[in-house]
Amino acid sequence: MKKLKLPKHPFKGMKIYCHKCKRDNPTCNHYDIHKFKVKIHITGGGNKKKTKVLDSKDYDTAVKDAIAFKKELEANNFYKAAVVVEDRNLTILGALIEYNRYLSGNHRYTHLVKKITKGYQDECMRYCRFFLDTINDVKKVSETSILNVTQDDVARFYTWAEKHYKEKTFNKCLNEVKSFFKFIIDVEKIEMKNPFEVYVSKKVAKSNIYTLDKSEFDDILEAVDNANPIVKLGGKGEKKNMYRSYLVDGFKLSLLTGGRREEVVDLRWSNIFSTVKDVKFFKIRNIKVESLTDEDYWKYIPINTDLMNLLLELGYDDKKQTDDFILFPEREILSKTIMNDLSKGFTHYKNMANINKKVSFKNLRKTYLSWVNAVMNKDTGILSSHSTHEILERYYIDPTILTKIEEGALKISIFGA
């Protein structure tokens, strides 16, 4: 096939375009699919352009078609023309800015925006910024078109991620950057191939699920009261006191409810309800599910004997009708601060108790679910919020759930005691 060529001084805006490479004036040898393309600058439209791929492979005929296209645009005030595609030509940085708007819910295509948590948005952007950092020395991301991201750039980032992440996080990192380019292609309608479409992911070994036994948990509680609360931070020898008055109650409440940090910290006395058989349970919003949908979802935590005894210690008789927080009700700090204190405090006092297991605060939830599973077996998901259920009326519960709450409250015993 004869190679298309432009004369020394071509018609203004005339390019050679490759449908396969999605590039102007390509250096590839896909001569059979190369075509002439014209870009017409819109008068008074800033840097906006209208483009058209021309049918003729003869340069002189292509110029005539380009002139006709320009006249058609001018006649229609640049707004209406057949077979027109606006050339947005986003830079790499500009594309990431659009993606951030999309993730935050401020994108111009509101009908395409998905609801995600702020934490997940930050995570996605963090990985994408790392990608831009790895190529900025080679390609100025504020000036280079997103179309010019190549497999070399993917390889550079792949090598960087291998050095910084273990297998599971590595796969997540690459996948989030792949999603960024999917947004560019599917939402922004930029004609390009996803450079992260194909790569070799890392094999993730099946991790062990570590739980705590009663003696280990008791040792951690004892450490809170008796061990050295001071920890030395890295760097300049800074020290920090890890003790907080609500740690013991927070650890117990987490273990006996199986709640996530945010659920435990924001748990209120008014979240307690009773079945017709006077079996008590917590009914709380399923934050994790609601963050991904626009619907209301709930989760249910049966109050067994162990949990009821703790609630009595925390003032159930006096506070059961109030909207006070159960944990640290006199707080003057943010819930997030308490969450961080629980996580970091647990790790510190676990170490002070000489427990060498790879456990952290989240393993209290895993311990709870392990004991729930011993009793509930296949119905564990009903109480762990891994299944969702329709609520027929505001305070009406599906009879299936109601039965499992009552069964759980009667049978579940953490540590089997």
Automatic annotation (TrEMBL):
Keywords: DNA recombination, DNA-binding. One of its GO terms (biological process) is DNA recombination. This is Phage integrase family protein. One of its GO terms (molecular function) is DNA binding. The keyword Hydrolase does not apply. Gene3D superfamilies: 1.10.150.130, Intergrase catalytic core. It comes from the Bacteria. It comes from Flavobacterium omnivorum.
